[in-house]
Design a protein that fits this description.
Blueprint: E1 2-7, E2 21-26, E3 29-35, H1 39-45, E4 55-57, H2 63-66, H3 69-78, E5 86-90, H4 94-105, E6 118-122, E7 129-131, E8 134-140, E9 151-157, E10 160-164, H5 174-178, E11 183-187, H6 201-206, E12 216-219, H7 223-226, E13 235-236, E14 241-244
Parallel strand pairs: 3-4, 4-5, 5-6, 10-11, 11-12, 12-13
Antiparallel strand pairs: 1-2, 1-14, 2-3, 7-8, 8-9, 9-10
Length: 245
Amino acid sequence: MKITIHGSGDAFGSGGRFNTCLQIEAGDEKLLLDCGSSSMVALNKARVARSGLSTLLFTHFHGDHFGGLPAFLLDAQFVSRRREPLTIAGPIGIEHRTRHALEADFPGASSNRWRFPISFVEITPEAPAELAGIAIEAFPMVHDERAGPCQGYRLTQGGKSFAYSGDTAWTEALIPLAAGADALLVECYTYDRVLANHLDYRSLAAHRDDLDTPRIILTHMGPDMLAHGEALPETRAHDGMVLCL
């Protein structure tokens, strides 16, 4: 499994980073995990052929994770002129949220006669799925239920597992999410300032022994976290980083 981090930034592009956008490759299939508002810029910069992405999977419905979807769809319709089927997956309400986002960004677009088939798949902790040849399990996270349900995912293929928290404060659900995974990509917005809906490094470090994974990568870092340049046991994500499991 190959993970390319096209966007590792927070909602505000702190440090000049793109919004969250991860490309997952497993065999011949490619999946995009989150597609924040700046993701089309990131994908174009990396020369990613969007028609090769069979699936878009979302953790929650905030703009820095979900806001690039309308532009992705219109690019597929009018620029790359996609013909391949597209699966759009995520928490409960994914189809309604997609149509609402299309209307908000491009009025009338939700009634387009798409030149490619679109299917919607809801994934919940009670209902895992297999998409793009990858087994996907959802875990409830603690972020902002107005933009949710907010979920982390565990992706497994070929005996390798990748865990991703999405956005969350510290929650015990991170423990089973990480358990036995080859790598955990976890948000770390602040260094020591505790927030109700985001994770700080001090809280993560306090629970490090509870996370049964050999590799932790920090992402979604805000200005406070980015300002702490000292060495840490964990890896810090950056745009363009590639993980091979």
